[in-house]
Amino acid sequence: RQAGDLLHSLRINALPILDRGEVVGLISRQDVDSAHRHGLDDRPVSEFAVAKPAWVKPSASLSEVRRVMLSNHGRLLMVGDPKSGPIGVLTRSSVFRAWAGDPRLAGTRRAPNRNQVLKDIEAVLGDSWEYVQRAAQVAESADLVLHLVGGTVRDVLTHSPTRDIDLVVEGDAVTLVNAIVEQVGGSAKVHETFHTARWMTPAGQAIDFASARTEFYATPAALPTVTQAGLRQDLHRRDFTINAMAISLKPDELGTVIDPFGGLADLKDGVIRVLHGLSFHDDPTRAWRAARFAARFEFDISEDSLGLMRSARRVGVFDGLGIERLGHELDLILDELQVERCFRLIRNWDLAQYIHSSLKIEREWLGDLATAQSVWQRFQAYESSRGHRQSDALWIIVGKALEPAVRDSISRLVPGPTKRTRLFVEGPEVTRQTLNKVSQAVRQAARDASTNLRADVAEALAELTFPERVIAFSLADVEPAELIEWWERDGREVKTDVDGDFLIAQGYQPGPDFRPAIRAAQRVAWAGGAAEEQAQAAFEAMQPRARKS
Fold it and tell me: Which pTM does this prediction carry?
């Protein structure tokens, strides 16, 4: 509250925060307003402070001041020496007003070359780039400005495969997409309430459009209220600086990177940084998202952002996070290649307790997670992997760290159909029990050479889903693991020729004896027996009365 009063009386938009004479951070008018909305008027400003402001010497030229201001993307510069203390401050508006009054001064922060950016877009988007350009042409004809935004821009600038193509229009996205469908083809799925639309191109690619908007969070962890706004406000609502950039698709600005919050510098330096002091209050899921991006790109979270996360945790912001929203973020994490590192960060940042208070992310569990992820990658070569995601299997590993009653109580954590929930709730026990059967079969075969080991293993594994078999392999000893992989590679495809029609043709009457007869034939097939041996096993399993007279 005191900071807000001071900002108002001085008519500036940011204040330095001092502790025993040392400048320790910066707080903006926007952060103060957000804190007020969240009912945090009585909290110390240090809990919402972003990175320390940059310093310039009193003798610095206006050109140097502007360079420092642009490179640090700050609202305020300290004038003086950090050791002896400030003698004053320079606001962003005062610097730019002075700059505008002296057009002879020159020198700006170097932006990416537009031609190179366009080449990078084409390389990352592939065939979809043609449709993005056609959408931009429709936007231009309607006097609308279209931009690539967010993670799409990040992926273009890092030459990474992009998972989504996101566009922001300064105007009505729904109207634009309807016009695109009319002029270019394809189909549209619109959400009028959220001012968003998805265009399915004639070639079947999905391209997402949204009206530039800002968000208002009435309370911590609440879902936002959305209103239309300009591009800068749209970028400011995003989670991290590396995701708060745009690339213009306007013809005379095509390929221009728009970076108002220092995302380019943070990409270069490998830093995950939130955009303002109330970021985690607005959306606590950003803490888990920070772990995901930090692990994926091998980045570090900035010290000020980590401090803001801790401050949000101290005042209970994460306690109000809904289980479904948290589960959605965990589901994305469980699909990451660097999933083990994600959970190390979750542990280091004391976030595991919000999944459940009993969850302990320990070395052995992290090892299980890493092994399961490695097995998942290995088993992608098998046909049976189709239609499954890595997270399907890794939810079982998460469940393994929790008691059955706990898993059942938080089953809504797992997004998607009931079969995925079952993997989390029942998968750990089902997998363990089946693995025990396989191990027992191996031991029995070692004692008795006449045991049909492969058949015993096959019958046990046939009851498991593909994700459960991945986990069984990851937890198995050497010989059971070899048998599990035999099943995945070959055993699943081994089918006996003995079926009901075959038995009827041999003179047997249809009845309950057919099932054990076919099973006996299948067991011989798994053991490598020839067709004659399979048939003989079936005949021996049939009761004499089953044959026609």
Answer: 0.79
